[in-house]
Amino acid sequence: MGTVLKALELLDLFTRAQPLIGLSDLARQAGLNKATCYRLATSLCDFGLVEQVGPAREYRLGPAVLRLAALREAQVPTQEAAMPILQTLANATGETAHLSLMMGQHLRPLAHAYSATHSTRVMLEDTESFPFHATSSGLATLAFQPESLQRLVLSQPLQKLTRLTETDPLVISARLETIRSQGWAESRGGYEADVHSIAAPLFDTFGHCIGALSVAAVSSRMNDSQRSAIRPVLIRAAQEITSLWGGSPPPAIAAIWHKAA
Amino acid sequence: MGTVLKALELLDLFTRAQPLIGLSDLARQAGLNKATCYRLATSLCDFGLVEQVGPAREYRLGPAVLRLAALREAQVPTQEAAMPILQTLANATGETAHLSLMMGQHLRPLAHAYSATHSTRVMLEDTESFPFHATSSGLATLAFQPESLQRLVLSQPLQKLTRLTETDPLVISARLETIRSQGWAESRGGYEADVHSIAAPLFDTFGHCIGALSVAAVSSRMNDSQRSAIRPVLIRAAQEITSLWGGSPPPAIAAIWHKAA
DNA sequence: AACCATCGGTTCAAATATCAAACCGAAGCA
DNA sequence: TGCTTCGGTTTGATATTTGAACCGATGGTT
User: Fold this and answer.
1) Cβ density class A223-253: b for 16+ within 10 Å, e for less
2) Where are the beta strands (DSSP E) in A104-258?
3) What's the helix, strand, coil split of chain A in %, to 5?
4) Where are the beta strands (DSSP E) in chain A?
C-alpha cells in the first residue's frame, strides 16, 4: 500500500470516542512501525492536518481540515445545502436521518439529524464507514455503482454482523437488481439487530451515484404503515438534495421516483 | 521532502480561484513529475480528500475534508465559536476582520468577516498563507513563537512585497520585541500597498500562541483616531476568542490587554 | 486527412524511503 | 531500586517511489 494512504489512514483513527491518540497507540492501531508512524504523523503535523497537544504530545485533528472544508463548501456547498433537508426529514419521520457519501471505496457518514419525537433513537456518532452489504445506505449506493466495483465488493468476504445480515453474494446481487427497479433500498437489522432502515441513492451532475440518504428507525417502531409513510418523504428529500447539488438521477430512476413520491 | 508532504501540498493548490485542476496542471504547479503526481493524486482520491469530476477527469477537493472538519469541530469548536465574534468585530470597526492559525510552519487564514459599512473593503478570498514578516497577523503570531522558529523565519530571505515591506531581520526582531511588550502588532502596507492592519495574538490552553486575529483596513481610512478605536475592540475580541477556545494568554499579555481594553 | 500538441494514464531501471528491532532519556509506579 | 511505558531516534536490509520515456485518445490547424 502507498505511503500516502498509510498516512491518511491515520486520520481515520480519530473519532468522537477517541479524539486524542498518542504515538504508540497510533502505531499500534494503524498496524505500523513506530518509527514509520512517527514520520507520517510528523508530516501530517507539518501540514496542520493533525496537531500535537499537551505535555503528553498526543495527536488530534488539526486546523487545516477546517481550511480545506471551507474551500470545499465554497465550491460545492454539500453539507450546508443538505442539512436543513436532513433535519426536515428527521422531523417528518420522527426517526434518525443520515447522509453518506462515497469517499474512495468506502461509504462514509457525512451528516445526520435526529428527531425529538421519541426517547429512543438510532445514534451514529461514531460510525466510520458503512458496509455495503449490510446497510440500506450501502445497498442503495452499491446498486448504482459501476459493475466492476459491485463485483469487487461482493467478491470480498462479507461479514455477518447480526443474525439477520445477508452474506450470500448471489442473494445480494438479486437485491441490488430490485433496488435499481424500485429506486430505494431497505435493511432489516442487517447492521444492528434492532435497527431497520430505508435509503435512497443520491446522484451527481453526471447521473453517477455518489452516496445515499437514509432514515434509520428502531425496529419496534418500523411497521408496515411507518415504512410506507417514510418511503415517499425519503424519496422527495433525496430528489431535493440531488437537485440542490446540481445533480440529477438517471432517467429511469427519475421516472420511478416521480411516481413513488 | 517526504512523500506525504508532497501529496498534501497538492491540496494547497486548490483555491477559490482555481477549484478544478487537471493532472498535468497539478504536476506542473506542484513541480512534480506527472507519474508521481498521478500516484499521489490517486491516493488522495482513494481517501476522498480529492475527487475527479467530469469528462476531463479534473481534480477538486473531496467530501472527506467535510467529515474530518466535522470531527475536529466536535472536539475543538474553533470556527463555530469564533465566527460571531469575528463578524461583530468587522461590524464594530467597519473593516475586514480575519482570523489565521498556525498550520505546520505556515500561518493560514481560517475565517474572515466583512463589514457592509464601506463600499471598498479588504478582500482575502484567495490568500493561501500569510508571510510572517509582512503582515500584522504574521508579526503578532511570530512574536510569540518559540525562538527557534523566529530565527528560522528571519534567517530565510524575506520577500519585499511592496515598497513598504520591511525585510531587515534586525529591524523585524526589534519590532517583535515591541509587539511582545504592547500585546498587538501593526503592518502599514507591508503586504499590500494600500492595506493597513492591526492584529492581536491568540493563545491555547498552554499559553502557546496559535494564531492571530486581525482587522485590515484600506489605508486611506486608517488614520490615528481609527487606529486607536480599533485597538481596544480588537483586543477584547482576541480575549473573547482565546477564552472561548479554552485558552489563556501568558500572564504578562493578560495584564497588558486588561489595561488596553 | 495528415499533423501536432496535449491530455490522462502506464511502464521500468535507478534512487529513495520504509521496515523491524534495538536503543535513548524521561516519567510513572512499585 | 527496578520495571514499564512513553515519545522519539538510529541502524542496515529491503521494498517503494521516482522520473523519463511511452501509450492511446482527443482536439485543433492546416
Assistant:
1) eeebeeebbebbbbbbbbbbeebebbbeeeb
2) 106-113, 185-188, 195-203, 209-218
3) 45, 20, 35
4) 50-53, 58-61, 96-103, 106-113, 185-188, 195-203, 209-218
Q: Give me the numbers of helices (H) and strands (E) for chain B, helices first please.
A: 10, 7
- Strands B195-203 and B209-218 turn out to be antiparallel
Instruction: Split chain B (261 residues) into runs of 10 and give each run's mean pLDDT.
Output: 88 90 91 90 93 88 93 89 96 96 92 90 85 98 93 93 96 97 96 96 92 96 94 97 92 94 74
Q: Are A191 and A161 in contact (CB under 8 A)?
A: yes
Q: CB distance B69–A64 less than 8 Å? A: no
CA distance A213 to A257: 14
Measured in angstroms, the CA of B40 and the nearest CA of chain A are apart by 7
Interval A184-229: pLDDT, tens: 999 999 999 999 999 999 998 888 999 999 999 999 999 999 999 9
CB A119 within 8 A of CB A133: no
Phi (first) and psi of residue B15, to 5 degrees: -135, 175
Instruction: Report phi then psi at B246, rounded to 5.
Output: 80, 15
- Give backbone dihedrals phi and psi of B20, rounded to 5 degrees, phi first: -120, 130
Spatial distance from the CA of B54 to the C1' of D25 (Å): 16
- With the CA atoms of B42, B47, B50 and B52 taken in that order, what torsion angle do they form, in degrees rounded to the nearest 10? 60
A48 contacts on B by Cβ (under 8 Å): 101-104, 106, 108
Q: What angle do CA B124, B127, B130 make, to 5 degrees?
A: 110
pTM listed for this prediction = 0.89
Residue bearing cell 483513527 = A13
Compute the distance between CA of residue A15 and CA of residue A187 in angstroms, rounded to an integer: 25
Task: Judge: domain A3-66, CATH 3.30.450.40.
Answer: no
Architecture per CATH, domain B76-260, reads as: 2-Layer Sandwich (3.30)
Is residue B99 within 8 Å of residue B213, measured between CB atoms? yes
Residue A87, Cβ density class (10 Å: 0-12 exposed, 13-18 middle, ≥19 buried): middle
Q: Taking the domains of chain A in order of start, what are their residue ranges?
A: 3-66, 76-260
A contacts of B1 (beta carbons < 8 Å): none
Residue A109, Cβ neighbours under 10 Å: how many? 21
**DSSP 3-state assignment of A259?**
helix
Q: Does residue A121 have a pLDDT over 80?
A: yes
Determine if strand C comes within 7 Å of the CB of A35: yes
